[in-house]
Amino acid sequence: MGAETEADRRTSELSREELVRYSRHILLPQIGEGGQQALKRARVLLVGAGGLGSPSALYLAAAGVGNIGLVDFDTVDLSNLQRQILHGSAAIGSSKLDSARDRLRDVNPNVHIEPYPTRLSAENALDIARDYDLIVDGTDNFPTRYLINDTSVLLGIPNVHGSVYRFEGQASVFGAAGGPCYRCLFREPPPPHLVPSCAEGGVLGVVPGLIGTIQATEAIKIITGIGETLAGKLLVIDALAMSFRTIVIRRDPECPACGTREIRELIDYEDFCNGGRVPPPAAGEVREIEPSQLAERIARGDELEIIDVREPYEWQIGHIPGARLVPLARIPQEIQGLDKKRTIILYCKVGARSMHAARQLANAGASDVRNLSGGIIRWIDDVDPGMTRY
Ligand SMILES: [Zn+2]
């Protein structure tokens, strides 16, 4: 996006139809006619016309965002309709882009929809995204999430992030000026076998509805310059408890994308997320410890090394007394410095990531490694119900 020209200003003038259509926006002093014109000029790239992309696209089009780029290569499937509200039963079998374009045109014929019938990749992402003011990430897999993050950082445009799983969702704004990026929070992807997708794990249909709507809200705030965005914050929603928590997240000066800037071009993200960085898990050599047993051993004053392998934001929500934080991705570097004769207890949220770390330690020769059964969630249930669940 270059500087605004006279021609831009002229073309963003609102017609009488638009003044009526957007009157509830224009009545808001924070938006007014100027804000509505900014929306009309705006260019938003939405990656994914699925669960998150559906409410985002509908609200962005209804709000009068003038140019919406849509990237998707999929066709509408019956199992999509429980949450992907852009698409209806009549569209089953047709392309999501065609279905989305028809629906969005009906919502607001003033909006220009630019379809990209392709999978976003390291080869095409910079070319597609460079003409846009911001990216809304409506994807559901780690390779594309890192690809979008790095594209956003390299181009210097914000990336409105959303993710959902079962009854939970998260949203943030990454890559905004001064704010952290996705890699500041998650340096490396989790091992692929520890990542269940919504297809495997399920998702309550309204949860992507909530998160996608929040993404559209953030996009509109960024475009119109109103309010305070989720840059530097991670919103965590639990639909079962109906709790909304905001966790402060910080820029990591060592972040290879936005900190040291050692990532100068896009990489192979499939490879990055499936890479053989960690030894394959071997079965059977790691013993578990029950939360109540661990609590007894801590109370007894046993010499224990308790390692929390979660991410820093999870540690901030709460952790076991006496533990120290070593996120899973940093376990390989940590191994050399560990006293392998000590009893080492590992834990994470529910026990899967820590089992992976425990096997790495066992493979490296640690003699007494225990995985905390059920992770901190069972610790909360069995030992310390006062701690915050998430
Ligand atoms: Zn970063």
Structural commentary:
With about 400 residues, the chain is of the alpha/beta class. About 35% of the residues lie in helices and about 15% in strands. The protein is built from 17 helices and 13 strands. The protein has helices at about 5-10, 15-20, 25, 30-40, 55-65, 95-105, 125-130, 140-155, 180-185, 200, 205-225, 270-275, 290-300, 310-315, 330-335, 350-365, 375-380; strands at about 45, 65-70, 110-115, 135, 160-165, 170-175, 235-240, 245-250, 285-290, 305-310, 325, 345, 370. The strands form two sheets. It has an eight-stranded mixed sheet with strand order 3-2-1-4-5-6-7-8, sandwiched between helices. A five-stranded parallel sheet has the order 9-13-12-10-11. Helix 6 links the parallel strand 2 and strand 3. Helix 5 packs parallel to helix 11. The longest helix has 19 residues, at about 205-225. The radius of gyration is 23 Å and the shape is elongated. Mean pLDDT is about 90; it is low at about 275-280. Bound molecules: zinc ion. Zinc ion binds near residues 180 and 257.
Bound ligands, named by name, code or SMILES: zinc ion
Helix content: 25-40%
Distance between the termini: 39 Å
What's the tally of helices? Answer: 17
Major sheet size, sense and barrel closure: 8 strands, mixed
Q: How many beta-strand runs?
A: 13
